[in-house]
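Design a sequence for this backbone.
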């Protein structure tokens, strides 16, 4: 099965962002007004009306979520830049948290299982960096998580990326082979040409697709999946990804770089059917 989504689908995320702001502002004003008593109105509106607005906004919020595929076992989404994969201890939004809201709502509406309603299962099968975007896969059962993670470990999952860099690599296509490790903070990747203590081998293939306005669009096929590998390797050869200030690039947008996981191929955990999801880079690139 191959499914492809064009760049127009990304407009959903812009709409979703605005709806999220609306939810926050309306909710904040409603809570502030409630301090004055249950009968006090807010800007001429009753609380029943405010509740109605919140319900409508929440419905639109869920409808705007860009889900690429969903069944009992897995859910594939298009993660926007700026959203973390997992919640963790960070205060910024995460794809995991957003999807859990969605799944909980769907279960409450459609499921007859009280167990699922109380303890819905959702785990990220792989991760994308917060400032990057692209196809992201989650497991809805422990069986699915184990089955697809085994494919990742066996190297049978295929991932492809688009990246726009500030400078073109020296060749039209090639392979980058380096050694990589995390720094002491664990938040930055250090790349070297020669092996150093604690460093592991990493490699990727790249092809130049186009060059315009001082930026070069690359098609990247990573052969290994190390922490910040694509970002760090490209920066190491003097071609940082646009917006990736962490690795020496000029600023572009807050919490966003021009790196997208545009293609993901794997076998369905239950049916073993080959599945491929493909998305196009946004027009804003």
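Sequence:
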């Amino acid at each position: 099965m191959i499914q492809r989504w064009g760049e127009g689908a990304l407009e959903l995320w812009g709409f979703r962002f605005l709806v999220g702001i609306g939810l926050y502002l309306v909710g904040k004003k409603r809570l502030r007004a409630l301090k004055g008593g249950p009968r006090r109105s807010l800007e001429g509106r009753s609380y029943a009306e405010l509740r109605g607005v919140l319900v409508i906004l929440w419905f639109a919020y869920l409808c705007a979520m860009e889900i690429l595929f969903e069944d009992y076992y897995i859910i594939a989404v298009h993660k926007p830049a700026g959203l973390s994969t997992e919640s963790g201890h960070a205060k910024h939004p995460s794809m995991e948290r957003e999807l859990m809201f969605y799944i909980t709502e769907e279960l409450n509406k459609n499921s007859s299982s009280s167990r699922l309603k109380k303890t819905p299962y959702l785990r990220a099968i792989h991760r994308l960096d917060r400032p990057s975007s692209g196809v992201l896969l989650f497991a809805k059962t422990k069986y699915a998580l184990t089955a697809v993670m085994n494919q990742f470990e066996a190297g049978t999952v295929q991932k492809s990326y688009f990246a726009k860099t500030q400078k073109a690599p020296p060749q039209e296509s090639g392979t980058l082979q380096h050694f990589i490790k995390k720094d002491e903070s664990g938040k930055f990747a250090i790349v070297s040409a020669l092996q150093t203590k604690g460093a592991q081998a990493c490699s990727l293939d790249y092809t130049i697709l186009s060059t315009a306005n001082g930026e070069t669009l690359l098609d990247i096929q990573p052969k290994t999946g190390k922490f910040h590998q694509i970002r760090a390797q490209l920066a190491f050869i003097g071609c940082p990804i646009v917006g990736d200030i962490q690795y020496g690039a000029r600023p572009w947008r807050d919490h966003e770089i021009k790196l997208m996981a545009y293609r993901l191929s794997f076998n369905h955990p239950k049916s073993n059917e080959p599945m491929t999801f493909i998305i196009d880079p946004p027009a804003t690139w």
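The chain has six helices and twelve strands.
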